[in-house]
Design a protein that fits this description.
globular, Rossmann fold, Immunoglobulin-like, four-stranded antiparallel beta sheet, single chain, alpha+beta, about 20% helix, three-stranded parallel beta sheet, 2 domains, about 290 residues
Length: about 290
């Protein structure tokens, strides 16, 4: 599977899209480069929420590997997003090109760093990594597979996935989330939320016995994407997703002007709910307008 990212990640194809090497190479030849910003944290969250789920072809019994290819320093918190993936048993390999930040690559990548971090001066030099990286990836998959003795569920479905996400009590700064838990209670829930037009993802981790949450300190008049993931010892269940906009801030109303003189006036208005201060702007009317 492959995703490109800038300020908005984009899935190019899912894990289940192609079944042969030639099909993948053909898709690669037809790939259009996506320029723009470098929101690596948002990209890693996209991979977890969109690409590493059963609907996209991720097999629960298979090892999960993410190869990050970047030519710049992240403009958001890549370390936090990477840590979330690593905590779920997903292994990250970080490859930097040109202006990539090597310290950030080492933060994002899984241990041992001598096997998971690579840096080259320019894109044509990436071909020199293919042989070594292929051997390392295959070896790591075999090593991890051999260590897995736990019984891993064969699918998620209602057994492992929550349902019926409801978003209510929406204000300019908060919203309330509730959902129905899966038949098998998870160990934890991970709730991720961020503005749909781009922004740093924030997350809350809850105990698996909880099925509601109030999100606060949100930005007013903003559309938010919300995802709820159930986390088990050996697998992450399919997530719930919702989209809701916070309300605009309350404006003052009924502006009145009184007590006019040659150099003063009195203004009065009905208060705006929740306002702690007011900013009053005054300027002379343009030429020709009513005084």
């Amino acid at each position: 599977g492959l995703s490109q990212y800038s300020s908005d990640p984009r899935t190019e194809w899912d894990l289940s899209a192609y079944s042969t090497r030639d099909q993948v190479l053909e898709a690669m030849r037809n790939l259009r480069y996506k320029g723009g910003n470098t929101f690596t944290g948002l990209a890693l969250t996209h991979v977890l929420e969109q690409n590493l789920k059963p609907d996209a072809g991720a097999r629960l019994e298979a090892e999960k590997l993410v190869i990050l290819l970047t030519d710049g320093k992240s403009q958001d918190d890549a370390n936090l997003a990477a840590q979330t993936l690593k905590n779920l048993g997903i292994e990250i390999f970080a490859i930097g090109v040109k202006n990539a930040d090597e310290a950030e690559l080492k933060q994002v990548a899984s241990e041992p760093l001598e096997l998971t971090v690579y840096n080259v001066l320019d894109f044509p030099l990436l071909s020199s990594l293919v042989g070594k990286l292929t051997r390392v990836l295959c070896t790591r998959i075999k090593e991890k597979s051999n260590k897995e003795n736990a019984d891993i569920p064969v699918n998620t479905g209602p057994q492992l996935s929550p349902t019926d996400l409801k978003i209510s009590a929406v204000t300019s700064k908060s919203m309330h989330l509730t959902w129905s838990p899966p038949l098998r209670p998870p160990k934890k829930y991970r709730v991720v939320y961020y503005p749909s037009k781009g922004g740093i993802p924030k997350e809350v981790v809850l105990d698996g016995t909880v099925s509601s949450l109030r999100l606060s300190n949100l930005t007013s008049h903003t559309e938010y994407l919300v995802s709820v993931f159930p986390i088990y010892d050996t697998v992450v269940g399919d997530g719930l997703r919702g989209v809701t906009s916070t309300l605009p801030l309350s404006p003052p109303r009924s502006l009145r002007v009184s007590e006019l003189s040659h150099n003063s006036m009195r203004l009065s208005w009905k208060a705006a709910q929740g306002a702690t201060q007011y900013l009053v702007l005054c300027s002379a009317a343009p030429n020709g307008a009513e005084d």
